[in-house]
């Protein structure tokens, strides 16, 4: 029971805040509830396909294959695969974290996981195509020329500043995620 309450504490807190707003200032409370409902609908629409893809990744790609493609010693190939996986993604960045857990369980190198998160955050191809149609190809390409080195630099700095003990803790936590 305690574990369940702890797991859903954020949802409970949001519900309590919405109810308090509803009592104190009904118009703001209704707007807040509507925003919460919209966010929940978006989440529920996106999560099933994400979990399906995550499950397929987990089942179809053997750990040895993932280690060979994205693990220690994968070099530029692993970085490129991580970048492409993140760039072809769809959805908000919080949806990348279940994928990250699977990548880590399968033996992906920490640096490549960081590249994946960075690419998911900044270089999604569907959004980039929309951006190019609105802002122009020159703008999009200029942004990529800034973002890609920045993603690599941030991943490198993060990879080098995380201690081995912290890294092991992160991987251990990823293993425990269902």
Automatic annotation (TrEMBL):
Belongs to the UPF0718 family. It holds the Pfam family ArsP_1. It comes from Clostridium neuense. It comes from the Bacteria. It is found in: Cell membrane. InterPro entries: DUF318. The chain crosses the membrane at residues 12-31, 43-61, 81-104, 110-129, 141-158. Keywords: Cell membrane, Membrane, Transmembrane, Transmembrane helix. It is a multi-pass membrane protein. This is Permease. Its main location: membrane. The keyword Membrane applies. The keyword Cell membrane applies.
